[in-house]
Amino acid sequence: MAQNKEYDLIVVGAGMAGCILAARIAERGVNPHNGDKLRIALIEAGPYLERKKNPGYGDPRWRIMVPQIQWEEFANIPHWPWPYGLKMVGGCSLHWGAFAFLPFDIDYKNWVDEMGIDWTKENMKEAVDDIVKGLHVHEDPEEAYSRGNRLFRDAGRALGYQPRGYTVARYNCIYCGYVGGAHGCKYDAKATSLWYIPTFLEHGGELISDAEVQQVVIEKQGAGGVVKGVSYRRNGEDFTAVANNVVVSCGAWGTPVLLGRSGFGPRAVLGPRTIVENDNVGRNLDGDTNFDVPVFFDDPIKEAGRGTSGGIYWFVDDPKFSDGTGRLRIAEDLTKITYPHVAALSEFAPAFGKAHMDFMRKAITRYGSISIGLTKPPTHVKGWVDLETGGHNYPGDDYIDQRLRVAQGIAIEVAKKMGCKVSLKFPKTFQGGYPSAGLHTNGTCRAGSDRKNSVIDQNFEAHDVKGLFIADASSYPRAVSSNSGLATATMGAFAARRIAKNHFSRGMA
Amino acid sequence: MKKGTRRRFLRQTGLGILATSGAVEPVALAQPEPAAATPLQIVAALADTLIPTEEPQYPGYRRLESFNISTFVWNQLRVVDRVTPQNLASFNEAPKATLGKPFLELDPAGRARHLDQLFSETDGASVPHKVLRQARERIFAVFYRNFPYHTIDRDEKGTPIATDKLHQIINPKKSNIVTGWDIAGYRGPLSWEEEEERRARFKKIHWHEGDAG
Fold first, then answer.
1. The domain containing residue B149 runs over which residues?
2. Regions of chain A short of the pLDDT cut 70
3. Nearest by Cα to A442 from A487, A408, A493
4. Which of A16, A236, A393, B132 sits 20 to 30 Å CA-CA off A502?
5. What is the mean pLDDT of chain B?
């Protein structure tokens, strides 16, 4: 075991929340006893691909490589494994469409009402403003819209819905059309928490990349525990880093797995490995699900071999619920590039032969889909993470199935209004059950005022382990109303302020 | 295609060694030998029916046989899709019952008629039907993912290596190879000139020179 280096704070995981949190604490926090700069380590399992930021132009290496990497490719990259995605400094924050939704009013209200925490819109405003500025959150300009965007918007309005444009987190986007079809961006336009790393380093932070944390070192103390540091492996060598404060930011799946490995979790699962017990570690998994309803137009809706990147969506609430339960998002995917193999395998394509080839000559400019999602599953349905494997489980509910069918019906109605062909298939995976809350997952170490139903308090500190903090997608107690990237970023910014104020301000004990 | 690209492709995939050593079986589209029907022959014949080649209007799958596309497809079917030689043999033998000959012995019209029959199966539960579905998906996926330019060079860790040889950044028109991307009119990544046009357009709308963050 290598040397025991000491820190005031260790942040585990340099993903969406971790980078932001580390940067803001490094910037704002001080040693409470002497006012010195904090000694902070940010430890990340993946590499730090440092490069000159040049939004709109990109880095020579990434300019060539990134747009060709579709999600299938990640399965073949051993150290960037799917479903965890990009295991690297900046994490999964630079992915897909860079669609950027801040928490909606109903999300704050749910967190406060259900868990008794003070995460109001007002209290989180400063953190939200930080994210809006830092990640450049804005709405796509009308000029970037394609014919498909406009058709969808007009159809929605005609049917009495209230379509609106996506907010996005991009910087100098040239609307190449790859934004929704590949993880990264060769023009460095997709927002990423990587942008916060220079701030972290400028304020004396130490970034330790390519280092897989094995355990958070927790010692038993009374009925609970106390943090002593972390152990990690780098280049085949084992290290220990000593600290009285550790923030875990490994995501909704990764965080409970690390905590379980560290002896913190349900005794029923961990058995004799349990050091400190809390039944909620890895439980209360929430999230949303989506599926696409393919459509095909007679005339082109996007540029040949290109796309744009705008997006239109609207919500459809279930009037039976005032907490957003059953909220649907109806969106379009009529703008980004269509890869030829996707069109070739679509149900609109003739089965084979010259007819198929004739279809392919015009398919990629006419093919698209309407994306539907249930963003607010019922509150009584929660899943869990397997603390050994990181696999996630979701019990399902007939109501979820019913709402997805309602959403499909709306999509078909919209498609008919647009005058295009539409798929009438309902995914087999959803029929008679709901196997997975696979997207935008959260809640597996959720915050609450009562340790009986939560893992951390409203200040992100574990109820049962002194000096242990959790700030990432696992922290927020209920799914947000749409894509969760910015909610996770907000957790990083908000937790940084709370932790700096409560633990790293001059004069604090 | 730049000089040496095909050689490099063959070296990277290992197909060149197989080809020169005789390990790759010859693909005989026009000379079916039912007694010795091999998986490669069946894959090649099926793919030729799915994506026919009839120059010059239909530059199809057969054009890419010189790049060992059937070897690649068969390896994917075998390893990824778990299709066995017995499954393929079952597919080949299936038309005997209705058309009196195995698939490889049918003329193009007969092969198309047999595929129509299989696709029209209501339950889709037979082995030949399943093989057809799997093979169709794999063949279209390989062809329309721009074979033989579909591979990405990787380092020893498996990380993609950025080079200027990826996909159709090189101009396929120079090599007279027509790929699935060409048929679909898919142009691949933007050229520098196209990027500059877009930058000029969006600089008038929404742009901030300098670093982010």
1. 1-213
2. 1-3, 51-53, 60-86, 92-96, 181-184, 304-308, 310, 428-438, 508-509
3. A487
4. A16
5. 78
The 10s digit of each residue's pLDDT in B104-115 is 999 999 999 999
Distance CA A268, CA A278 (A): 10
pTM for the whole thing?
0.86
Pick from A63, A195, A365: CB nearest B212: A195
Quick one: A411 exposed, middle or buried, by C-beta within 10 A (0-12, 13-18, 19+)?
Answer: buried
For domain A4-136+186-284+441-503, the question of CATH label 1.10.8.60 is answered with no
A51 CB near a chain B CB, below 8 Å?
no
**β-sheet with A40-43: strand ranges across:** A206-208, A40-43, A9-12, A246-248, A468-470
Per-residue buried b or exposed e for A338-368, using 16+ beta carbons within 10 Å of the residue's own CB: bbbbbbbebebbeebbeebbebbebbbbbbb
Give the three-class secondary structure for A469: strand
Q: Do residues A319 and A327 touch, judged by C-beta distance below 8 A? A: no
Contact at CB, B140 and A64, closer than 8 angstroms: no
ipTM of the complex: 0.82
Alpha carbon separation from A120 to A112, A113, A369, B104, B199 (Å, rounded): 7, 10, 36, 70, 40
For A141-167+287-381+395-435, the fitting CATH number among 3.90.980, 1.25.40, 3.30.410, 3.30.1560 is 3.30.410
Q: Higher model confidence: residue A220 or residue B179?
A: A220
Domains of chain A by residue range: 4-136+186-284+441-503, 141-167+287-381+395-435
Residue A349: its pLDDT value, please? 98
Chain B (43-82) residues lying within 8 Å, Cβ to Cβ, of chain A? 49-52, 54, 58, 60
Cα–Cα distance measured from residue A487 to residue A286, given in angstroms and rounded to the nearest whole number: 14
